[in-house]
């Protein structure tokens, strides 16, 4: 490569790495009142993006509003709104889309993070149709129909990130429905990367955490947590459960311009518990 070209490319890289690289963009992070979603909302806001902080349970209102205050005080200029909406329903999906359009300065939704998920454990003989529907409604149906509603408002350069789980590939007991539903998120990233790539300029990727210290994780049965202990002790990066701060920056990268050449991928964010 000629010297001049190299200089030009270095200069563009410096330019691309602006401090607030998501400034002026608007995002939706489902299930962001607490846990991994709250961390992702703060990460996107730290980079300058406006954020719809979504939750469903009335008891999480205070937590969601506290995330909004933290975002608006973080110094990046990001704005946020807390929206109570069950994203399994069409009405809930419309509510978060409308909130994002109001938050945006140019009625665009640039970043969509499908984070809300249910990971309740259940041995195969105990799986009921109600349990199946509850878990697949949130983990499979909601991302499909929310994405459908967001796409008409997502300009080129848009980013969709699905928070799946290493469980999609591990074969952990009690995860018949969870593992299958999280595997669907990986499939969505590949199919949507194809459907929304050249035609719409949108990238779609999946991030798979291993165990992360959140309310969701600690609501697992003691039996389940005990079963995972040897696995956690053997985690290559460090013998510990993951933390929200280990996962959120990976989503931040996938939401940024810098990830433009990554699409249809699944990134393992689990300290090497599972290589892929
Ligand atoms: N923690 C882990 O070990 C782990 C590992 C791998 C993957 N994951 C995945 O990471 C994601 C986040 O997990 P987490 O442990 O941080 O979850 P969490 O602590 O259980 O928090 C769940 C979040 O989702 C929201 N939510 C639940 N149902 C919803 C609905 N119907 N509509 C809108 N929001 C809803 C909750 O809102 P409320 O506060 O109102 O209830 C809350 O904000 C999930 O997809 C999970 O499968 C987690």
UniProtKB/TrEMBL annotation:
GO molecular function, one term: oxidoreductase activity, acting on CH-OH group of donors
Highest rank taxon of the organism: Eukaryota
Gene3D superfamilies on file: NAD(P)-binding Rossmann-like Domain (3.40.50.720)
Sorted UniProt keywords: NADP, Oxidoreductase
UniProt keyword Transferase, yes or no: no
PANTHER family xref list: NADPH-DEPENDENT ALDEHYDE REDUCTASE-LIKE PROTEIN, CHLOROPLASTIC-RELATED, RE15974P
Stated family: Belongs to the short-chain dehydrogenases/reductases (SDR) family.
Name of the protein: NAD(P)-binding protein
Annotated source species: Didymosphaeria variabile
